[in-house]
Amino acid sequence: MSDPNTNREELQHILLAYVEGREHGIGPTLEELIERNPQYTQALLNFAMHYDLAAERAAKTTAVPAGQLEPDHSIERQTLEQAFTQLRNPPALTSLIGRAAQRGYDMAFLAEELELGTDVLMQLERRKITSESLPAQLLEGLGRLLAVSMQQLQRFFARPPSTGVPANAYAFARLDLMPGWRQQTFAEAVQASKMMTPEQQAKWLALADAPVDRSETE
Q1: What residue segments make up the domains of the chain, in order of their start?
Q2: I want to staple 152 with a disulfide (CB 3.0 to 4.6 A). Which of 55, 74, 133, 148 is the partner?
């Protein structure tokens, strides 16, 4: 079993190499780092997103004095520290559909990309599917499309089920379960879906039977 402290140190070196490449054009690109270190794909994508946001905020709030020719390295350090902080302490994920909207996706597009029915996606949104039954491939797909960490997803699905409907999903309110509902397994939700093809159902039912390693939280 790998040492988590060693993994964190290795990841930090990789992230610093990414920053060096971004700032000075002398290091590997994000795509190259992901290709070399596929085990850190999600962490690299999350860090790049947070780094861009931190850099944008720094650029808006920091005025460059007239005549200053040398770069202000304190701004670079601040940007890097903010990105690392966001990576270590990601904000809580409160809505799959809301997060998709932030990234320019609607509910139908998200369902299509995941090869799920919108009825199943709505049940995921409202946490009416037991978290322990979710396949690793589903969590990986959500993480990639929503640019969130596995930790954020696990915390989202660990929360109690919701009885509300997201503001941008009222068109799908009819997909709600009837009163007296109980949480279903992912396989049960897929089998009951009216909006999935037999091929999609077969794919996800096969994956739902695969063992899932939930020991990683980062």
Answers
A1: 4-62+75-88, 96-208
A2: 148
